[in-house]
Amino acid sequence: MTGQYSGGGIRGALPVVADGWLISPAEALEYKGEDGFNEAPALRPRAVVPLIDILKPEPTNDLKVKAPFAIAVQFKGQADAPINPATFKVMYGAFKIDITNRLTQFVKVTPEGFMLENAKIPVGKHRLTLQVQDEKQRVAERELRIEVE
Length: 149
Known about the structure:
The termini are far apart. It is globular, with a radius of gyration of 15 Å. The protein has a single domain, classed as Immunoglobulin-like (Sandwich). The longest helix has 6 residues, at 25-30. Strands 2-8-7-4-5 form a five-stranded mixed beta sheet. The chain has a three-stranded antiparallel beta sheet with strand order 1-3-6, with no helix packed on it. The chain is mainly beta and 149 residues long. A hairpin with a 4-residue loop joins strand 7 and strand 8 (139-148). 11% of the residues lie in helices and 38% in strands.
């Protein structure tokens, strides 16, 4: 499909790793995971766009979780265009490195969202940027900032 976001941040997609990590400890350092966590959230204009709701991990004041932890996401399309799950992307850290294939090896992303039971992310502060488009190519983006203990 033309016009679709191909993802990949500035470096392209990272390959799947055998041990199941979404981000390895070395990658968390190399790709500035903590820098991404500490950046101010981007301001986005409100319009008719799809929505991404993060159901898990449940919000806490200190953003802390213990690994492995569950990630559950719900997509909400607008009445005029359903979500296209093939456009789903997960990008990591300040450099927005594409880790979509590391997540999708464990879960099926549907127009309704997905549930990953045991996300493996190393100790430290991290930012995951989730994106999805609807059938009219309108993009929803949501950040998940967590500190893994």
